[in-house]
Amino acid sequence: MSYKEKVFFKNQTLRMAGDLYFPAGFEPEKKYAAIVVSHPGNGVKEQVAGLYASKLADHGFIGFAFDASHQGESEGMPRYLDDPAKRVEDIRCAIDYLVTLPYIDENRIGAMGICAGAGYAINAAQTELRIQAVAGISTWDVGDSQRNGFARKWTVEQKKQILREVAAQRTREARGEKPRLVGYVPNSPEEFTEDTPVIQREAYEYYCTPRAAHPNSHNKFLFTCNDRFAAWHAFDLIDTISPRPILFIVGSRADTLYFSESAYKAAKEPKEIFTIEGASHVDLYDKSPQVKKVTEKLEEFFRNSL
After folding, report:
1. CB-based contact 268:241 (threshold 8 Å)
2. Which residue in 124, 121, 123, 119 sits closest to 140, CA to CA?
3. Residue 69 host element (H or E)
């Protein structure tokens, strides 16, 4: 079985917290391929990111899951800031740390992420050439969803209205009001409406019940982050990842499938979409049969790529 070690690394002035997962029988004098694993927007390293880092370590890789800056055990003020540019820089700094370790083969570093973390990992790979292969599980493009609404259903007026609200909130906070915090997902089933997407209902169960709740995952982010999301384009340069390979792993029933399909269409070869039949978006986070299939595909992908 793999085992983990808590580590700390720097992102400029911030102290970042991560978990390194080592394969059983790890030998420090050898060189290992490493995979940086980025957690979802509402996640921390102890949840799905750590699960897949551990699974990859079981297959002989070094898995590295870490808390995003401003979140979890990582430093950063204000707390609950979720800024796409910072999330991508976190990945670069995680790689900066890995290449200082004598047992890491710097020519065999991969990256992956889950949900929003997948969007950040793929975006990082567009310009971070130390990433030799990248994979996304249940990929989510936070820029697309904030500009266009979930399932791209927002009207032009709805798109403008959210930015008006952000502008008004920034003004209030500039004048001394407390920051406004909002949830990534509903806090209880009582908040569900007939318009609540399946992903939101399932994510509530994952993050807000004993299924996967963690004391460092607070279901909060700063409302004023929404303008940063809206200005961010996850996959504008995705074609430049080629000839490095890219893999999308999706559930056939995921209502977020369109993110992966759009990114796949824009990417160049070598590329692949691997579909888990009957699975939803969140099923791939921790459901045993689905996790086994995802892990087997990741192991094959990174083994062949790195």
Report:
1. yes
2. 119
3. none
Residue recorded with tokens 């499938």: 257
Cβ(159)–Cβ(147) below 8 Å: yes
Contact status, residue 35 vs residue 91, Cβ threshold 8 Å: no
Of the CA atoms within 13 Å of residue 124, those in its CB half-sphere come to 33
- 243 preceded by a cis bond (ω within 30 of 0): yes
Predicted structure pTM score: 0.97
Tokens of 259: 């993110």
Are 114 and 40 in contact by the 8 Å Cβ rule? The answer is: yes
User: Which one, of 42, 236, 260, 233, lies nearest residue 146 by Cα?
Assistant: 233
Tens-digit pLDDT profile for the chain (306 aa)?
889 999 999 999 999 999 999 999 999 999 999 999 999 999 999 999 999 999 999 999 999 999 999 999 999 999 999 999 999 999 999 999 999 999 999 999 999 999 999 999 999 999 999 999 999 999 999 999 999 999 999 999 999 999 999 999 999 999 999 999 999 999 999 999 999 999 999 999 999 999 999 999 999 999 999 999 999 999 999 999 999 999 999 999 999 999 999 999 999 999 999 999 999 999 999 999 999 999 999 999 999 999
Separation of alpha carbons 219 and 72, rounded Å: 11
DSSP string computed for 45-105: IIIIIHHHHHHHHHTTPEEEEEPPTTSTTS--SSTT---HHHHHHHHHHHHHHHTTSTTEE
